[in-house]
Amino acid sequence: MTEQLRDTAAAGGDVRLTGISKTYGASTAVHPLDLTVPQGSFFALLGASGCGKTTTLRMIAGLEEPSSGTVLIGGQDVTALPPYRRPVNTVFQSYALFPHLDIFENVAFGLRRRGKKDVRKQVEEMLELVELGAMARRKPHQLSGGQQQRVAVARALINHPQVLLLDEPLGALDLKLRRQMQLELKRIQTEVGITFVHVTHDQEEAMTMADTIAVMNGGRIEQLGAPADLYENPATTFVANFLGQSNLIPAEVTGRSGDELQLSASGVRLALPKARCATEATRVHLGVRPEKITIAHACTEVAEGRNRVAGTVVDSSFIGVSTQYVVRAETGQELAVFEQNMDRDVRIAAGAPVVLHWNPAHSFGMDATQAIDAGTGEEAA
Amino acid sequence: MTRLIGWVRRNLVVLAGIIALAYLVLPNLVVLAFSFNKPAGKFNYEWQQFSTDAWTDPCGVADMCGSLTLSLKIAALATLGATVLGTMVAFALARYRFSGRAATTALIFLPMAMPEVVMAASLGTLFLNMRIPFGFTTILIAHIMFCLSFVVTAVKARVMSMDPRLEQAAQDLYATPVQTFLRITLPLAAPGIAAGALLSFALSFDDFIITQFNSGPTTVTFPMFVWGASQRGIPVQVNVIGTAMFLAAVVLTVVGQTIGNRRKARA
C-alpha cells in the first residue's frame, strides 16, 4: 500500500497557484496570490478564521471557482476541471463521512466511482493502516471523533491522490487527541510521501506538522517559510504576534555602526542587527520573543553589548516548567518574559524593580507603520 | 385516598397515553366489529348477529370494488406525480436563489391553508372554462395539486437539514453530479420523500370534497361511493374495506419500525 502510494506521489504532486483570487460580490476573500507547494512537502496555510485559507484550499480542490488565476497540479492546468476530475482528495472539517454508508463503503467510495472492481483487499489494508479494521461494518455515528477523523483520512488516501488537502481536520478533537493525531498525520505523510496541504488556525499545530507555513491574513499571504524561520524572523507584526508571542517596542533609528542599527526607544538605547531588520524606515518596531529575555534584580550587572531595559514586575505566574512575568518597562510597554525554572525559588515578586536584558541578535525589526497589535486577537478589527 | 392520588401522579403519563390510544383506536374497533354484523335492514348501525358473509364476499356490492380500484389507481398515480414533481420543487426551493422563489414558497402553502371546498369549486370552474371533460384526468390533476404541497414541505425540511459538504465530499471522491445525486443526495433525502409520498397516498385516497367537484358521471371514487351508499344504507362490505385498510396501515407501520430498529441495533 505504502509502496503504491509512493509511486503516485513520484508522478508529480506539486501545486502551483498563479494570480489566484476569489471575490464574492464586493468582498474579496482571497487577493491575487502566487504560491508553489513543492512535491512531497507538508504545507500549512495558517491564519485566523476568515483570512481566506479555506477558500484557497477549496480552489485547489475545485469546490470553489477562482475569480482569476490558474491552478496547476503536477504541471497540469486543472483550473477548469470539476472536483471529481482532479487528482486531489480532501479531508473535510468535521469529516463529512456519508452517514448512510458503513465505514467500509465510505472508504471504498472513491475506488468504486472510478470503476475499480475488487476493492476489498485495498479497503481492508487501508483500514488496517489507520487501525480501524474491526470497525468496517459500523456506521460513522457509532465511532468516536478520533476514529471518524481516521476514516476521513483513509477515505481520501486510498485513492492515491497527488495532493491531499486537509481542512482543519483536527478542529473537532480535544486537545490530547489532537496532539496524538498531529503526530499520526505527520507519520502517515512521511510514510506515503504525498504532498499535504493543511489548513489550520492553530499555530502550534502548523509548527508541529508542517515543513513550510504560509501565514495568511485578510486574503493575503503575510509570510512564507519554515516554522523556525517564521518564528525567528517574522516580517510583519501580524506574523510576530500570531505565531507565538512577541514583545514589540516602538523605536527610532538614530544611527548605524557596522552591521548594527542604533535605536532609541523613549530614550533607551537598543541595538538591532541590520540583517534582522525587515525595513529601511527610521521608525520601527523592535521585537523580541519573551523566552529570549533574561530577567534579573535591578542591581545586577549586565554584560557589555546586551540590550538592557529597566522595569518593574507587574505580575508573575508560575506555570511549572517556567515562570511568566509581565514587566512594565521604562520604554512604556508591558513586556512578557518567560523564565525557565532551572533553580528553585528564584521567583521575583510583583512590584520588584528589575532589569531585562537580551542578546541584540535575538531582536528583529519591522516597519512601524503597521498596527503593533495585529494578530494578537485583541486588535481593533 | 392519598395513595390513589400518589398512584395517579406517578402514572399520569401512562394514563394519558392509554386514553389517547383508546380515543384513536375505538372507532376503528367499532368498524371492525360491525364488519362481522348481519344487519336486519339496509342500515348497519345496530348489532344483530355475527356473520362472516361480508368478509367472504367483499365485492358482493355492486360498483364498490370498481370504485375502490379507481381510488387506488388515482392515489398511486397522484402519489407518483406529486412525489416526483414535489421533490424537484423542494430541491429548487432549498438549494437555489431565483426570482419568484418567495412567491413559489407562498403558493405551495396555499392548498394546505385554503378551505378545501373553495379550492374544489375554483378548480371545477377552471376545468369547465378550459373545456376539459370531467373525469379521471381532472381528478388526477386536482389530487396532484394538493398533494404537491405536502411533498414539498416534507422534502424541503429534509433537504435544508442536509450537510452540503457531504455532496462536496462525494464530488471530491470522483462522483459525477449524477452519481452524487443517486448515491448521496437521494438516499439522504429518502426519509423526507417517503414521508411526503405516504401522506400523498393517504390524502388522495381519502379525498372527497375536491373529487366530488371535479369528477365525471362515470368516475366514482371509493369515498364518493361510500357517500352515495350512506344515503341508501351502507353495506357491511364498506366496513370490511375500512378494516382492511386500517390493518394494512398498522402492519406497514410495525414492519417499518421493526426494520428501522433492527438496522439501528445492527449498526
Provide a brief overview of the structure.
The complex is a heterodimer of chains A (381) and B (267). In chain A, helix 3 (103-113) packs parallel to helix 5 (145-157). Chain A folds into two domains: 2-232, Rossmann fold, CATH 3.40.50.300; 245-367, OB fold (Dihydrolipoamide Acetyltransferase, E2P).
Word description of this protein:
The complex is a heterodimer of chains A (381) and B (267). Chain A is α+β, with helices and mostly antiparallel strands and 381 residues long. Chain A has two domains: 231 residues, Rossmann fold (3-Layer(aba) Sandwich), CATH 3.40.50; 123 residues, OB fold (Dihydrolipoamide Acetyltransferase, E2P), CATH 2.40.50.140. Helices cover 23% and strands 34% of the residues of chain A. The longest helix of chain A has 18 residues. In chain B, helix 2 packs across helix 12, helix 5 packs across helix 7 and helix 8 packs antiparallel against helix 9. The longest helix of chain B has 32 residues. Chain B starts with a helix and ends with a helix. The mean pLDDT of chain B is 90. At the A-B interface, strand 6 and helix 3 of A face helix 8 and helix 9 of B.
The major β-sheet of chain B equals: none
Number of helices of chain B: 12
CATH class of the largest domain in chain A: Alpha Beta
**Which percent band covers the strand fraction of chain B?**
under 5%
Largest interface: pair, residues per side = A-B, 29 and 18 residues
Low-pLDDT runs of 5+ residues of chain B are none
Identify the overall geometry of chain A.
Answer: elongated
Alpha carbon gap, first and last residue of chain A: 48 Å
Give average pLDDT of chain A, whole number.
Answer: 88
CATH homologous superfamily designation of the largest domain in chain A: P-loop containing nucleotide triphosphate hydrolases
Based on the structure, what is the oligomeric state of the protein chains? heterodimer
- Mean pLDDT score of chain B: 90
Helix content of chain B: over 70%
- How far apart lie the N and C ends of chain B? 49 Å
The portion of residues forming beta strands of chain A comes to: 25-35%
Order of helices and strands of chain A: HEEEHEEEHHHEHEHEEHHEEEEEEEEEE
CATH class of the largest domain in chain B: Mainly Alpha
CATH architecture of the largest domain in chain B: Orthogonal Bundle
